[in-house]
Structures are given as C-alpha cells and as structure tokens.
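Bumping my old thread because nobody answered last time. Still need a sequence for this structure:
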C-alpha cells in the first residue's frame, strides 16, 4: 500500500523472510528498505531520498507508526517487520544455506564486532567481508568492486539514513546479485554498542520513547513523528472528502437517469 508516497508491502515478518530467502542466490540485486515514520517523513521533504525509496524492490513496515498509518488510511498491514529482527532471521538463513554475508556501515570496530556477533548467533555463518560506513562518494566504486569480487548472498547496510538507501539506489545497476538490506543502526545493535528497548516496551509500541530516553540528543529527529501523524491524518481526511464528493456525484448522476 502507499503511505505518503512510499510503497509498503502488505507482508508479515514470516512472509518477508520467505520471500527474501528465495533471493539469496538470485540473479539480480534485490534492494530492501525498512521505512519507519522518520524515514517516510524525510522522503516527503527530500526528493532524491523519496525517489530512492520508490525504486526499492521491497519496502517493509519498520515500526508501529507505519502500522498505525496503514489502519488510518484504511488498508491495515498484517504487522510490523522490524529491520533488526529481519536481519537476524536472514543471517540464520545464510548460515543454513552457506550464503556469504558482507557487512557495510558504522565504525570499523563496530562493523567487525557485528560480524563476530553474527557468527556467534548463527554458527557456520560465512562472512565474506566488512567495511566501515565512513567512506566518501569517491570511494564508493572500490566498495562496489569488492562486493563484485566477493559475491555475497546478503549485504547489510548500516551507514544510516539516507546514505544506505541513496548508495544502494545509485549503484544498483553495478551491484552483484544479492539481497541488500538497509538496517540503519541495526549493525550497532548487533555489535552490542546500542541496545533495543526491553520487550514490553517494544510490544507496546514505545521503542521510540526508549530511544529518546537513552539518547536525548535524538529529540530533533523525533519531531518527525508529529509531522508524520499530521500528514497521515490530513491524507485520510482528504480521501474521506473525495469519497463523499464522489458518492454525492454518483447519487446526483443516478437521480438524473431516473
């Protein structure tokens, strides 16, 4: 469904896992983005980023805010697809089938720690490469060449928004076949440098509050939440008005035909 210009797949976490498992040994790049309200709000204000989101092969609902929006807009999604949980499931799948994994993003220390933690969580996982996320545009070509040499089945991007999405979109015609999953801060979580909210807070949809409490400097980013909610409600009211007008027109047309 369309949420403020972003096409979000109507798939559950289990369904997304199965869909992507079949593409770990695919014949073309498969770009997967995990938009949350902050990402969707940014897309409304950044044309290049918005275009990148729309060119993904799959966008999934990362966060209860996107789930709420789908309900308000009249097409409820089956549930959220948290990027961190999807990443962990795909790592396990890669270990099972022998697909290589390449980690890109965060600091050099954290990306190596993330790769090591991934091996511990998924015994037998084959890590074919790591690369920190602080590289310039001029250095992008060498990274793409390294991906082509190592030919992973899964590439995890943890450079942050919007670099994950813009990089993947800019280079997609030169990327080797693989699943490319943008996980934002997910690599820092995997490395143990950042912690997710406790389970009860996640189940209550309060993970955003936990992030704000543990990292108060995020308060500016959290301003995206009321902007997103306002835009969704305005879209809903506009759609309702259009429906009312169409119903009125249909009634008028029907009356004239009698």
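Sorry it took so long. Here it is:
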């Amino acid at each position: 469904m369309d949420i403020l210009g972003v096409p979000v797949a109507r798939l559950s976490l289990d369904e997304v896992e199965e869909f992507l498992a079949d593409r770990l040994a695919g014949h073309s790049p498969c770009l997967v983005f995990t938009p949350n309200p902050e990402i969707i709000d940014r897309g409304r204000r950044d044309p290049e980023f918005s275009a990148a989101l729309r060119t993904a092969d799959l966008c999934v609902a990362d966060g209860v805010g996107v789930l709420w929006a789908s309900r308000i807009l009249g097409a409820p999604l089956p549930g959220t697809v948290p990027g961190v949980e999807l990443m962990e499931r795909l790592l396990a799948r890669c270990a099972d089938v022998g697909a290589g994994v390449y980690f890109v993003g965060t600091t050099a220390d954290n990306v190596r720690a993330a790769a090591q933690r991934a091996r511990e969580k998924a015994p037998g996982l084959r890590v074919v490469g790591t690369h920190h996320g602080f590289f310039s545009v001029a250095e992008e070509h060498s990274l793409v060449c390294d991906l082509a040499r190592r030919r992973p089945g899964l590439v995890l991007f943890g450079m942050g928004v919007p670099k994950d999405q813009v990089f993947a979109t800019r280079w997609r015609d030169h990327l080797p076949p693989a699943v490319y999953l943008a996980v934002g801060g997910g690599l820092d979580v995997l490395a143990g440098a950042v912690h997710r909210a406790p389970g009860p807070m996640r189940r209550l949809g309060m993970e955003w509050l936990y992030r704000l409490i543990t990292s108060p400097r995020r308060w500016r980013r959290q301003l995206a939440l009321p902007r997103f909610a306002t835009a969704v409600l305005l879209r809903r009211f506009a759609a309702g008005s259009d429906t009312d007008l169409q119903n009125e027109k249909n009634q008028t047309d029907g009356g004239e035909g009698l």
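The chain has one domain: 2-236. Let me know if any region looks off to you.
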